[in-house]
Design goal:
Elements: H1 9-15, H2 18-33, H3 39-92, H4 95-104, H5 106-122, H6 131-174, H7 179-186
Helix pairs in contact: 2-6, 3-5, 3-6
């Protein structure tokens, strides 16, 4: 591939507006500072940055999913513990009293059954975790998420900077058609 300096930038500069000139100069300076004047190196840097961004995004999504799972487990455990006394009270009753009690507290029975099904999926064969322990785990995960988000933001900014530099470098190398040429092409 061509080195950016090996191309005659003078001709390109003459055809560009002042804004484009400034943009090209900034791109050229960025590429020189980062030793990315060779397009192969620039492509490799962009690809490496894209992979780092993708990994940071996946890490962030994984942490967010774990937080959602923990919050769901906390809600299920809370609902189970809230409805459990109603079920225990019902077991003590017999006959019409039990039937009347069931009708009066039917919503709690439905919630209890649903929480039992969810607990079999979320925590099969395990002892119910304490709500305070779940809260501590969620807080730790939120701190981890914040750190991962900072990493993600940094990786995203780096990728965007490199991708923009690559687009600008390609534009410098290949030039852009003038407005008149674009207009003629549209006809």
């Amino acid at each position: 591939r061509d080195c950016l300096l090996s191309r005659g930038l003078g001709d390109v500069y003459k055809r560009q507006s002042l804004h484009n000139l400034k943009q090209m100069a900034a791109t050229h300076n960025f590429l020189m500072e980062n030793e990315l004047l060779d397009l192969d190196k620039l492509d490799a840097a962009v690809e490496s940055s894209r992979k780092a961004l993708s990994e940071a995004r996946e890490s962030l999504r994984g942490i967010e999913q774990t937080i959602a799972d923990k919050k769901n487990l906390r809600k299920v455990v809370s609902d189970y513990r809230r409805t459990r006394p109603t079920i225990e009270e019902h077991k003590k009753l017999k006959g019409k009293k039990a039937e009347t009690y069931y009708r009066a507290n039917e919503a709690d029975f439905i919630i209890y059954e649903a929480t039992l099904r969810q607990l079999k999926v979320l925590a099969p064969g395990k002892k119910l975790p304490a709500i305070s322990k779940l809260n501590t785990e969620i807080e730790a995960l939120i701190s981890e998420k914040n750190a991962a988000y900072n990493t993600y933001r940094t990786a995203k900014a780096e990728y965007e900077q490199l991708a923009t530099a690559k687009r600008n470098a390609e534009q410098i190398l290949h030039g852009t058609p003038s407005r008149q040429k674009k207009h003629e092409q549209e006809r």
